[in-house]
Amino acid sequence: MRPHRGFLFWGIFFTVLGAIVLADRQGWIDASQWREIGRLWPLIIIAVGVLILVARTQIALVGTIAAALILAGLAGAGLARGTGFFAGMGDCVPGGSQTFEHTAESGSLSGPASVELELNCGSLNLAAAEGDGWSVDASYRGAAPQISATGTSLAVRTPESGSRRQEWEITVPPDRLERVGLQSNVADVTLDLTGSELADLNLEANAGDMSVTAEAGSIRRLDLSMNAGRARLTLGGRVESGHLSVNAGAIDLCVPPSAELTLDVAEQLTFATNLEESHLTRSGTVWQRAGSGGPAVDLGIDGNAASFNLNPSGGCR
After folding, report:
1. Beta-strand (E) ranges in 41-145?
2. Can you give the pLDDT of all 317 residues of the chain as single tens digits?
3. Which contacts (CB < 8 Å, 24+ apart) does range 25-34 have?
4. CA 69 to CA 8: how far, in whole Å?
5. Helix, strand, or coil here: 247?
6. Do β-strands 286-289 and 281-283 pair in parallel, antiparallel, or remain unpaired?
7. Cα–Cα distance, 73 to 63 (Å, whole number)
8. CA 307 to CA 309: how far, in whole Å?
9. Cis before residue 112, ω within 30 degrees of 0?
10. Are 201 and 223 contacting, i.e. CB atoms less than 8 angstroms apart?
11. How far is the C-alpha of 58 from the C-alpha of 45, rounded, in Å?
12. Separation CA 300–CA 37 (nearest Å)
């Protein structure tokens, strides 16, 4: 009998995860000495890459076991230290000032405008605000973030010279936005785009947590890629097309009960969904639900060593 690789991955993952935490609690190991464990976060990306490369080869079973051991080892070490896994990554990059500096800038957007965000290490909170003004309030260690703007664009980026932790508070006018792009690494991200009518929303995150709210608006094209982390999407309007991809993590999608759904889900042994339990009908790889006057949402979805949940009981906030 061939083992189910999805069950094998999660079985190994949780067994090793629990064993590390238990060993620390019993005093068999001292996780407090693992101060630099967060520096090894690139191993997460490597493990995911290996899992994808060998997914359909004869050594797929070996790749699944190796990925489970690496991810569980890092996650278990973080939990045993009591700081949380991603918080255990510390300041991400050595060097720079030990104290936080502060900068703030503001301006206005005439629209239709593009917002580009690139954050390596830290937190980002973007909120919609009425009017035509934007503002960036940033705390940082090391070098200051790079902020550039015109009447139709705003860009905030981690400095090219490298930096330690950055914490950004950004406000933008929702009715001026046309495109929002985000790239984040080792970061906690919250985006509130309520009221925006977007032509393009492109999100890419590695090793972090992301929460996106886009209610009372619409998105022509939505693309999200999450690697080694969790993404939560709350959509209240139409999504004409797009793709959600997750590796070694989870995506939760919340939509109105009245929404018409068309979800094309790529089959993968290490990818679990709750679509059958959500009473969607299936035809091949496409899962559908007839709407009752609500917005239409049309998305492609795939994942490896990951899960996708539609309207989870705890919500997507």
Report:
1. 101-108, 113-128, 133-142
2. 455 555 566 667 667 766 765 666 556 666 555 545 555 555 666 666 666 555 555 656 666 677 677 766 766 665 554 444 444 444 554 444 468 899 999 999 997 999 999 998 889 999 988 899 999 999 998 889 999 999 999 999 998 865 578 999 999 999 999 999 999 988 899 999 999 999 999 999 987 889 999 988 899 999 999 987 889 999 999 999 999 999 878 899 999 999 999 999 998 877 889 999 998 999 999 999 998 889 999 999 998 878 899 999 888 87
3. 25/80, 29/80, 31/77, 31/80, 31/81, 32/81, 34/77, 34/80, 34/81
4. 11
5. strand
6. antiparallel
7. 15
8. 7
9. yes
10. yes
11. 22
12. 35
Helix (H, G, I), strand (E, B) or coil at 49: helix
Tell whether omega for the bond before 174 is within 30 degrees of 0, i.e. cis: no
HSE, side-chain direction, 13 A CA sphere, residue 223: 10
Summarize the chain as % helix, strand, coil (round to 5). 20, 45, 30
Residue 1 amino acid letter: M
CA R_g for the chain: 21
What is the DSSP-derived secondary structure letter of residue 176?
A: G
Amino acid at 17: L
Q: Could you give the CA distance from residue 246 to residue 256 in angstroms, rounded to a whole number?
A: 22
Element (H, E) at 198: strand 197-198
From CA 106, how far away is CA 211, in angstroms rounded? 24
Structure tokens at 162: 């490298």
Q: List, in sequence order, every residue forming a beta bridge with 273; answer none if it has no partner.
A: 308
Beta bridge partners of 218: 197
